[in-house]
Please model this.
Amino acid sequence: MRIAAGVDVGSTQTKAVLLGDNGERSILARALVDTGANVRKAAETAFDKCCQIAGIPQSEVGFVVGTGYGRYKISFGNAQMTEISCHARGAHFLCPGTRTVIDMGGQDAKAISVGPSGEVLDFVMNDKCAAGTGRFLANAAEVMGISLDEIGPLSLRATRPVKIATVCTVFVESDILSYLSQGKRAEDIMGGVHLAIAKRTLSLARRLTIEPEITMTGGVARNIGMVRALETVMERKMLVSPDAHYMGAVGAAVFALEKLGESFESSVWREHAVSSGD
Amino acid sequence: MANAPVSEYRGNIHQQQKELMEDWYQQLDHAADGGDPPTVSMMVSGNCVELLEGFGAVPIYPEVNALQLAIRHQSLDPILAAEDMGYAADNCAYVKADIGCMLKGITPTGGRMPKPTLVLCNFVGCNTYVKWFEHVAAFTGAPLYVLDVPFLRGEEPSAADIEYVVRQLKEVVQLMEKLTGRKFDFDRFRQAVEHSRETEELWSQIKHFSQHQPAPFDAYFDAITLMGPLYVYRAKKEGVEFFRSAHAELKSKMDAGEGIYDQEKFRIVVEGPPPYPYFRAFRDMFAKWKACAVASTYSTVGGLWEFGFRHDPARPFESVAMHMLAHNVTNRNYLQRYDQIRRYVQEWKADGVIIHFVKSCRLFSAGQGDMRDYFTRQLGVPTLYIESDLEDPRYFAEAQTKNRIDAFFESLEHAKQTSGRAVAV
Model:
């Protein structure tokens, strides 16, 4: 069996996935750690954990592709790809009908048009601003004194979601405090927060031609409130894989496997394969 | 990056350009002693350098001063000095860098800048310049003439537009005669227009060399090297000689099949000026992918000549007016800019378009979102939109910019592998 790995070093969390191919491709293991300050260490820990879970020695992993902002810090990686390519490839692997990917991570929100082979046709991202990202939700949750896991389900109980005027991750705090002082319900405030992000994401995605099927990826995809809010504003059903959070790592592992099978080649990663830094 | 490919071609033209530009700064330094030669502060876009030749005057380009500061990583201090004085964060960063230099008494090269004989605000396509040049006049105490060039509303300027600009040019002549005490030398002016015509013909042919595969030079990054002599020396014998030499050098590269990389992998068209504070890092992001710019709109800011316009010594005033009105990218309407880029993509055989949005220049950048839609949706041309600034280093996020550029070329590469084609035009 050919075994390859993808390691996605995100701004908040680092994900690793092992992918095996014995005629049929399958995910062998997945691991998740907080990125923290030591990016290199986070990548090593996630990869190590993943191999332990699968019971496979690291030496049996034929090729490792790193992705995410910390991809060039992965000392053991053979090559690097951007998370844009990896999310598209991962979504195509797990949901082959995917034509649009909405990826919401800790500091990034992006929309990607995907071709029938999982290739990126076009993409747009938020620019130098954390509005519409996981960080926005995390700040809102912190102000409300609620855990991140709770805010999604809580938002679904909103009956009269408030209007959040700002999309600024910093100023949203004062909006929330203002609504709290007016005695608004926590459910309605969180409902408003989720809708605000969903609308911002929609305006981002509209710069592309949004075609079904739409697959949501990234850590925020675990938030059921965000998925529903996006479905509401986009008037479309979202596909959410149980591995949505790992999608970048899955896509990186798919590229790594294709490299082993010689069905994919990049002009650039050969250069990176011998390069330890950037 | 540990093993980036060699990203640029360094030829004789680069050394000659350096010498010419140093000579220009020396002339300005010399003029600071007492007004000889006369100097005129002017805007690059649609500049009327030919007219200055009639007085033997030398141009001062505040934009060139600003970009020289940025490329030397010295723009932030003057920008902050201007902001301390009250210039807003959203003001044009070129303006703030230039004003900041005056406040701090510095110049980009360390040489002196003269008090201009005239501050000539030829505000082609940029109304911020009116205020900028008013401030330059106020800081230097030099007289100001605002040369009003109407925006190009249709395909061609009207006869009234041309007459309106010609009359102003003649007023400038009268004013300069008063200010310098020199008689306008019409024959020298006509000769300057003839020099410009020759330079423009050479430059236009050079621009067309990059239609060749591989392109013998980068029509964005290397074109910027050639833009200095184009705007300062176009109307002089030295300019014609420089471009004759550049033409020979680049033609021989083209004939030998030499590109700027060992193998040209991608051909791109670039819209917008570069982030000068990170010029090298930005160029390397394209070099990594062996991507060569085959055309750029920025290299047509001072004049758009590759589609046929030339100054005309038989009608010197009228052709200077035509150049200012219709043949520089910033005074043309947006649909014309779309068409210019479309022609580049098709006739220069490009794989995609890069749009660089300049945060502190809304006038140039507003509408680029729609431009992206036009190319991706209507023409099916892969188009990347990135944001930073041409002068203010605070707006450049290196990791984010690199990520977008890498993703764009990854997608082009995947497209080539999956469909065997790079572009849908």
